[in-house]
Write a structure and sequence with these properties.
112 residues; alpha/beta; four-stranded parallel beta sheet; 19% strand; disordered C terminus
């Protein structure tokens, strides 16, 4: 069984919605971190949390242009492979992601 199979089993399980709600609660408890420039890696069609984003520049990065075009929550949209992006030191204040790790090439080669 590979990582992708395990991930898909977990995502379809009964605890997935509960896990998402705990993740959302965690981000609300850390809402003060959402300042300056925030990047959501693998944002897809919508951001996964409900933190109010009026205190930051929110950049959504995704490999799918069609998903990015549907995302109305981000201020800026970047169509790119997150696994190959390079960021200068101190150019963003926070990077968040969900549902991304199983798509990263270096992990696929090691774990799958």
């Amino acid at each position: 069984m590979n990582l992708r199979t395990v991930y898909r089993m977990a995502k379809s399980g009964e605890y997935w919605e509960q896990a998402l709600s705990l993740i959302d609660a965690f981000f609300h408890s850390k809402a003060d971190l959402f300042t300056g420039t925030v990047v959501e890696a693998g944002c897809g069609q919508q951001c996964f949390h409900s933190v109010k984003l009026d205190r930051c520049r929110y950049i959504g990065v995704d490999l799918s242009l069609s998903a990015l075009l549907k995302n109305e929550q981000v201020d800026f949209k970047v169509c790119a492979d997150v696994g190959s992006m390079l960021l200068r030191d101190a150019c963003v204040n926070l990077i968040v992601c969900k549902d991304l790790i199983e798509h990263l090439y270096f992990l696929k080669t090691v774990l799958c």
